Amino acid sequence: MLNTKETTNMKQKNIGDINTKVFEILSSLVNKKTAKSITLERRLKHDLGLDSLNMMELCVDLESAFNITINECGVSVKTVQDLIDLVSGDDNVKSSMPYNIEDYPLPKTKKHIKRLKRYMKLSRLVWRFKVSGLENIPTDRNYILCPNHQSYYDLLWIWAAIGQKRVDINKTCCLVAELFISKTDILAMFGGIPVERSGDTIPAMKRGLECIQKGYTMLIFPEGTRTRDGKMQEFKGGAAKLAIDAGVDIIPVRIDGAWDIYPPHQKSPNILRFGRRYPLNISFGKPIEPSEKSVEELTAQIQGEVERMRK
């Protein structure tokens, strides 16, 4: 039996090993100058400059190195010490999520499917759809849709443009803002996976990857949020990262007219303009293979294609 001193020495050695490995992993994600300044007090995002993609890579590397499962590595983990406490199983690091990300997407009942189909059909009647590139939508495999984001209804309108014959709407999902968590019917209809208000996308991204690997078709708005002025914002790399990790194609999507129909300052969408239905143009580009591309290269290619399809 080990005495108290021997137990303490073993524990200190184990902590030392954890520290060394965590520092090693962090050093691989930052530049050489920043790597030299890593200490227990350094903040992961503000001091070391880790973004959401870096944080996701960090989680993956830690899980592999320590044979553990990390459900959260974002908001509650702010410093290097927090990270070590998390890996060590220290109870001081608590999950800040008021829900279990593994519960999403919520099960789609027959009622949800019926309602979604009705909304899709109604959309085609209320607004004047002009759809192109449907021949680019694969029917024999799943993929990730990457559209620009102009309005609250973009998600519905894109599925309405594709139509239920080209996609199994029972196996579709998307990333949505956490504010929709109380709207369970909407979350279930669209296969919503909530993203934390703080912008920590890691739990949702990991869950999204699991869904894609199970055959789900996913829709992600690479801009992260709706445009406020009608102009397209810079694309973030989350969708590219998922496509690379899952080995599925990206379908670039361009939506035009949605901002005119439902601008951010209005509480409800416009229906008629000069007695005519508002036009809505939705274009689907050719599949983009993620193989042999970096996240940055793939993200730039996606944005370039979406910009090219502008009407």
Question: What does this protein look like?
Answer:
Helices cover 41% and strands 13% of the residues. The protein folds into 2 domains: 85 residues, ACP-like (Non-ribosomal Peptide Synthetase Peptidyl Carrier Protein, Chain A, Orthogonal Bundle); 208 residues, Glycerol-3-phosphate (1)-acyltransferase (3-Layer(aba) Sandwich). The chain has a 7-stranded mixed sheet with strand order 1-9-6-2-5-3-4, sandwiched between helices. A two-stranded antiparallel ribbon has the order 7-8. The protein has 11 helices and 9 strands. The N terminus is likely disordered. By secondary structure, it is α/β, with parallel strands linked by helices. The chain starts with a helix and ends with a helix. Helix 1 runs antiparallel to helix 3.
Q: Which class best fits the helix and strand makeup?
A: alpha/beta
Instruction: List low-confidence stretches.
Output: 1-13
- Give me the count of strands: 9
CATH homology group of the largest domain: Glycerol-3-phosphate (1)-acyltransferase
Strand order of the largest sheet: 1-9-6-2-5-3-4
User: Which CATH first-tier class of the largest domain would you pick?
Assistant: Alpha Beta
Main sheet overview = 7 strands, mixed
Write down the secondary-structure element order.
Answer: HHHHHEEHEHEHEHEHEEEH
Write down the overall geometry.
Answer: elongated
Question: Helix amount, in percent?
Answer: 40-55%
Strand content: 5-15%
Question: What CATH architecture of the largest domain would you give?
Answer: 3-Layer(aba) Sandwich
Task: Give the distance, in angstroms, between the N- and C-terminal Cα atoms.
Answer: 76 Å
> What is the number of domains?
2
CATH third-tier fold name of the largest domain:
Glycerol-3-phosphate (1)-acyltransferase
The number of helical elements comes to: 11
How much is the radius of gyration in Å? 22 Å
> What average pLDDT do the residues reach?
87
